[in-house]
Amino acid sequence: MSQYTIGIDLGGTTMTAGLVDETYHIVAKLTWATRLPRPADDLERALADLCRAVAKEGKIDFSQVAYVGIGTPGSVNFTTGFVGYNTNFGYYDWNLGPDMEQLLGCKVYVENDANAAAFGEYLAGGAKGYRDAVIVTLGTGIGSGIILGGKILRGFNFAAGEMGHTVIVKDGRPCNCGRRGCWERYASARALSEDTKEAMKQNPDTLMWKIAGDLDHVNAKTAFDAMAAGDACGKQVVETWMEYVACGVANVVNTFQPEVICIGGGVSNQGEVLLAPVREYVERETHNITTGRNPVIAACVLRNDAGVIGAAALADSI
Ligand SMILES: [Zn+2]
Question: Cα(124) to centroid of ligand 1, in Å?
Fold first, then answer.
């Protein structure tokens, strides 16, 4: 008989639960609105209902579910299931894991959402089949997860793998985390949008005005589209941004030498336009004299399913 687990990707807007089989396939999936703000115990009951609903959707009895894994924003103590700090939800000292175990009557693992998504990509996505992997997601910030020998690198405070908050420009742009010059302030999708807007303000003739319409409609695609259409200003913005992306990726390689680095987030849809220059830069700035092989640099493939699959497999991540 197959073994099933349930993985939950808990976000500020939606929460998705997937019933996952032992080959990491999603058998059934449901997405509900998170409906914040709401009290923590109310959200916990909704999460428990969601788990039972997705088991039913997959036509299995909930008693057949081996365990539930939850990926949530915030700082998570993986050992206790305690979420210390979650600004998105406004909860402090959230006893999520133990509370859910009470409600569901089964083992519940809780992990940071970036680590859970990285683990999913490692097991079933772009990093499948490699031993050591780093997953980097370029979004509002830069999320990352480091998997070494099949295990998530957590560190003794469960806060390891925050590559987005490694400094690449000393005394650079201020970051939410309190430091200045963090990688995510230069190489996230949001940073690309901000750089695009700055360039547009200084260049009234750039094609980016035509592409975006106005500053409010600028996104991480605007400069790429302009570059593809031959716009010099767009090309400049993209190239500068890609150098920052590559600089951080080279730091990852020099620190961990993973066999594969997968880059995710909407901007990874640019494919080789992004990946090829990053590879070239990284090969120039890293060391491979013992094997002559370079780490594979590829795009993530699972998109939103990565968080669900990774959460559903958390027992394997220890
Ligand atoms: Zn930072």
Answer: 29
Distance 267 CA to ligand 1 centre (A): 20
Find the 142 Cα to ligand 1 centroid distance in Å.
9
287 CA to centre of ligand 1 in angstroms: 27
Question: Residue 173 Cα, ligand 1 centroid: separation in angstroms?
Answer: 9
Say which amino acid occupies 111.
E
* Cβ neighbours for 161, distance < 8 A, ≥ 6 positions apart: 114, 115, 118, 144, 145, 146, 152, 153, 154, 155
Which residues are within 8 A (CB) of 121 and not within 5 positions of it... i.e. 6 or more apart? 127, 133, 135, 262, 264, 300, 301, 302, 306, 310
Q: How far is the CA of 185 from the centre of ligand 1 (A)?
A: 7
SS3 content of the chain, % helix, strand, coil (to 5): 40, 25, 35
Q: Looking at the structure, tell me whether residues 217 and 246 fall in a common domain.
A: yes
Ligand 1 mean position, distance from CA 174 (Å): 8
Query: Tens-of-pLDDT digits for all 318 residues of the chain?
Result: 679 999 999 999 999 999 999 999 999 999 999 999 999 999 999 999 999 999 999 999 999 999 999 999 989 999 999 998 777 788 888 999 999 999 999 999 999 999 999 999 999 999 999 999 999 999 999 999 999 999 999 999 999 999 999 999 999 999 999 999 999 999 999 999 999 999 999 999 999 999 999 999 999 999 999 999 999 999 999 999 999 999 999 999 999 999 999 999 999 999 999 999 999 999 999 988 888 899 999 999 999 999 999 999 999 999
Give 258 Cα–ligand 1 centroid separation in angstroms: 23
Cα–ligand 1 centroid distance for 175 (angstroms): 5
CA of 44 to the centre of ligand 1 (A): 30
CATH of the domain at 146: 3.30.420.40
Nearest alpha carbon to residue 254 among 300, 292, 288: 288
Are both 285 and 312 inside the same structural domain? no
Residues 291 and 169 reside in one and the same domain:
yes
- Separation of 48 CA from ligand 1 center, angstroms? 34
Number of domains into which the chain is organized: 2
